[in-house]
Amino acid sequence: MIKMLTPILFAFFISPLWPLGANPLPGDTFVIVNKTTNELALIDDNKVQTVVSVGTGKTKDLTPEGLFTITVKAKDPYYRKKDIPGGDPNNPLGSRWIGYDAEETDGRIFGIHGTNQPASIGKYVSQGCIRAQNEVISSLYPLIPLGTKILVTSVKKPFDILAKEYGAMN
Questions:
Q1: What is the pLDDT of residues 5-64, one digit of tens each?
Q2: Counting beta carbons within 10 angstroms of the beta carbon of residue 64, is it exposed (0 to 12), middle (13 to 18) or buried (19 or more)?
Q3: Active-site residue, 121 included
Q4: Parallel/antiparallel/unpaired status of strands 39-44 and 47-53
């Protein structure tokens, strides 16, 4: 019985016609955030597609370093700490939230998000998240599927070298 089900299950899970919407397995998209330069790189199709300026933690330890997975995405995210609804101009999370699983938080605490303080971009200002201009995060949002790996580092290496070291580029 198991031998008969194996090809069916295999075809079901690798099918481009995933029955629950888009296939949840990420492609070759990879995100790198370098806290030393406060830059984010989007790696896709075996090359660095774009590099943008971001803001990171006020202190080095506030933005955790490591290899994580994008687990949550939200348009107009709700800001729980101060009960500010999504879309409100006072919402510090801006227009998009791309959460990742640092420190076993399941993408609910650490993330890449927009901001209502555009002058903070490029600086060490956050409580741990990675801030980007609302226009930037809105353009990156559809390009970063759930399951994408994100490397947060302070290593002084070019993005293409880091991507190769982590298997995101040939």
A1: 444 444 444 444 434 444 444 458 999 999 999 999 999 999 999 999 999 999 999 999
A2: middle
A3: no
A4: antiparallel
Residue 166 pLDDT level (bands cut at 50, 70, 90):
very high
Sequence-distant (≥ 6) Cβ neighbours of residue 11 within 8 angstroms: none
Q: How far apart are CA 117 and CA 166, in angstroms?
A: 33
The residue assigned the tokens 């949840």 is 24
Is 129 annotated in the active site? yes
Location of structure tokens 């200002």: 125
| Half-sphere exposure of residue 29: CA atoms within 13 angstroms, side-chain side | 17
- Catalytic pick from 73, 113, 131, 149? 113
From 102, 129, 130, 163, active-site residue: 129
Q: What is the pTM of this model?
A: 0.83
